[in-house]
Structures are given as C-alpha cells and as structure tokens.
Amino acid sequence: MSLNLDSELYLAFKSGKVVLGAKKVIKLLKTGGESPKAIVLASNAPSPMKEEIEYLAKLANVPLIKYQGKSIDLGRAFKRPFFVSAAAILDPGESKIMEML
After folding, report:
1. Domain ranges for the chain
2. For residue 99, with 0-12 CB atoms within 10 Å meaning exposed, 13-18 middle and 19 or more buried, which class applies?
3. CA 13, CA 51: separation in Å to the nearest integer?
4. Which of 28, 38, 85, 97 is 20 to 30 A from 51 via CA?
5. C-alpha dihedral sign at 6, 63, 25, 91
6. Which residues pair with 91 in a beta bridge?
7. What is the pLDDT along the chain (101 residues), one digit of tens a residue?
C-alpha cells in the first residue's frame, strides 16, 4: 500500500483512537455506541467477515477504506506484530486520514 496511507494510519493510531480487529469492528458497528469515522479492511480478510463488515458499514453510513495490502501489512502499518484484518477509526487525531477518503 502507499507509504502515505500507512503513515496516516499509524498517526491516527498514536494520536487518536483506533480499534483493531474484525470481531471488535463488527461488534462496534452492531451496537452503534461510538460511531466510527471510517473502517479499514485488508484485501485478504475472510470473505464472510469482509461481506458482513461491508454490509454493516453501508448501513451505518461509515466510509470503507479497502486497504490494498494483506492483513500482515495492515498490522505493520499500525506497527503491531500480528495480523489485522480490519480496523475502525473512532478519532483520527492529528492524521489526515479523513481527507484521503
């Protein structure tokens, strides 16, 4: 993926509030408590999970960023040593991630 998007994702993670993990993202979209500003979805996320997140994001009018890299690359963008299939950006902080949509 573009280096610019990776750096903006990490900046949002450090200065704002980001939830990592597909199960947490699905739960967040279903409960409707704190509404995400955007959802980031890895290209190789499991198909049923990907479809559910896309559907719930559409229902909640939350923009979806389809990350071109795989889940390991998305994890690396957040500087985490594990796979991240999906992430919800609750507060972009100092990043310009919302301008990239």
Report:
1. 3-94
2. exposed
3. 24
4. 97
5. positive
6. 17
7. 556 899 999 999 999 999 999 999 999 999 977 889 999 999 999 999 999 999 999 999 999 999 999 999 999 999 999 999 999 999 999 999 988 87
